Each structure stands twice: as C-alpha cells, then as structure tokens.
Amino acid sequence: MxxxxxxxxxxxxxxxxxxxxxxxxxxKTLFKPDTYKPVDTKLDSAYAPYDDPAFYKxxxxxxxxNSEYEDLEEDVKQAKFSMALYGDSRHLTSLSKHEYExxxxxxxxxxxxxxxxxKKGIKLTEKIVALLKEEPKFIGYKVLHNYRADTNSGMTTxxxxxxxxxxxxTEVKFAMSLEEYNQTQxxxxxxxxxxxxxxxxxxxxx
Length: 206
Prior knowledge:
Elements: H1 2-11, H2 14-27, E1 37-48, H3 53-87, H4 94-133, E2 137-150, E3 156-165, E4 172-177, H5 178-205
Antiparallel strand pairs: 1-2, 2-3, 3-4
Helix pairs in contact: 3-4
C-alpha cells in the first residue's frame, strides 16, 4: 500500500502537485472548505527579486519610510510656522515664549528624525536597486490559482490567488491575491522608472 502511494505521488505532474499544495493551503483558511472547487491552475517559474516575498517586504518598508518622511516634513513646516508666529513679537509673554520653545523642540526633533529616515531610506534604496540589477535567480514556482468557494454567509465567490512554492513543489512559502501581485509588479516598475529618472537628472547636473 505504501509503495503504491509513493508511485502515485512520483507520477504526478508538476501542475498536479501544485494544485494539491494550494488546495491544502486554501482549505486551512476558507470559511467553508468543503465548498472549495478548483477552476484553473497555472504554474510558472518564480525568479528573484520579482517573485521574492522578502524583496516585497523591502518595498513595503521603503514605502512606509516615504510616508513617514512626508509626515515629518509637515511637522517641520508647522513647527517653523509656530516659531515665526511666537518668536516675532518684540515683547514675548511667558505664554508665547513657552509656545516658541515647544515649537523649537518639535522642529529640531522632526529634523533629526528626517535625517535618520533619509539615511535609512538611502541604504534601503541601494539594496533594492542592487537586487534589481542582479541576474534573475530561480527560486521555485508561482502558482496562479482560480477557484470557487462559499463565504461564511453562504455566498459563492471567485478567488484568484498567487501562491509561491519551493523548488520541489512541497511547500507553500507565501500567498497573495492576484490583484496584490499585479500591484506589486506595478510598484516595482514605478520604482525603477523613478530611480532611472533621478539618475539621469543627477548625471545631467554634473
């Protein structure tokens, strides 16, 4: 009996192995696993960095740094305005002097954080650029899986999920919706375009 199972497992095509993997993975997260029905499965090679979840984390972190940077710039702007407002008077009251000192502290703290973020952002950008300049490296497979399943309320929905699996088709390492995957690829494309533009501007200034 055990030998029969081994023979069957070995005779499975890569697509069949991939579909079995994603089926097991989905059934752990679906509200009603017994309603799951596969519709279509497409198997393709995955290459780093474009299909590497670790690389995606770097992109998300860089996006977070940029958002934080913009917020801090607004803090600097507001603190600078308050300093000008309360420090412009010839006869500072104790209240206005306090407000000025408070604004000055916020201004200095925000600028310090901006400088730290700038250094961190430069380092992370250089890391991302270096990865994108490397030759694509095979890291396993990506499986685009289309399926039907019922929600908790009983409605049937269509799911489109991209699963990233190992080279031996034995483990699901990561999964995301097809929409998220496409958005990530667009973000990579946008990042490269912006970086190349900034490099061209830098070269033209020299």
